[in-house]
Amino acid sequence: MLSLTVVKSTDIAPFRKPLVSRPHLGNLIPNIVIGELTMVVPAQLTAEAVNQLREGIDLLLGRWSALQMAVQNEWGGRDTRQKAQQLAVDIYQWLIRPSEALYVDELENLLDDFMLSLNTEIDDGSIEEIADNLMIIHEECLEGNFASIERLRQSAPQIAAASHQMQVVNGGEDDSDSTSSSGDESMEMADGVDPTSNMADMTLNESARPAAPIVDADGWTVVSSRRNRR
Fold it and tell me: Which of 33, 143, 145, 163 has its CA 20 to 30 A from that of 177?
């Protein structure tokens, strides 16, 4: 019998149920008996569920602070954004593999390998959180349940607004002709904006914010740890 280990859920918006850690088989339709053989047939995504899943993947990756930092700073080169878009495609293809059990460990490795390809080492626990949440939305899509994706979608306008505020502040800092009063105004705006909010920090109710990334002697960008990798 396949055993499932359920870990205690951290307070990650918009998900409010325990996260299935490993392994994960997704939703299965009743067994089909053919002669003396029993076949377990995986449930199939409907056309609507496919679109919802794709959007959910994009929304989750958009909330991943470490990935968005890498994209904005082009840590993986000038085509970092294109690489991030391809990551979403790769995740979708991984989730819809036919007749294969899905193990969250493998998804974590996929995410970890991708971030390493961007010269970024992640040790803040976000890889596990993103992987768990991707598994959740996939299972919910198989069930025709899009509630978590809808909550992600509803939070998107707030993320965009915070991003726009940061762009205004940064633009003001680059203006060499700005007066001291306008500079003070920019500083006031900066004080009112959380630098991680445009990346939609996955732990929205945590008071502690991730520290700034550190570049080690070999040129790797290290995202500081909140919790150890499993």
Answer: 163
13: Cα within 13 Å, side-chain hemisphere: 14
Domain with 193 in it: 15-171+180-223
Judged by DSSP in three states, 139 sits in helix
Q: Is 228 inside any structural domain?
A: no
pTM of full prediction above 0.85: no
Q: What is the pLDDT of residue 212?
A: 53
Is the link from the previous residue into 14 a cis peptide, with omega within 30 of 0?
yes
Instruction: Report the C-alpha gap between 180 and 162 in whole angstroms.
Output: 24
Would you give the distance in Å from CA 150 to the centre of its chain? 15
Residue 8 domain-assigned? no
Collapsing DSSP to helix, strand or coil, 204 comes out as coil
Whether 2 maps to a domain, the answer reads no
Number of domains in the chain: 1
Q: Is 153 among the domain residues? A: yes
Q: 137-163 pLDDT, tens per residue?
A: 999 999 999 999 999 999 865 555 445
CA distances from 59 to 56, 149, 186, 199 (A): 5, 8, 30, 11
Neighbours of 160 (CB within 10 A): 13
Alpha-carbon radius of gyration of the chain: 20
Average pLDDT estimate for 114-127 = 95
Q: What is the DSSP string of 92-113?
A: HHHHT-TT--B-HHHHHHHHHH
Mean of the pLDDT values across residues 103-110? 96
Residue tagged 């520290």 (tokens): 211
Cα separation, 81 vs 68, in Å, equals: 9
Specify the DSSP class assigned to residue 197. Answer: G
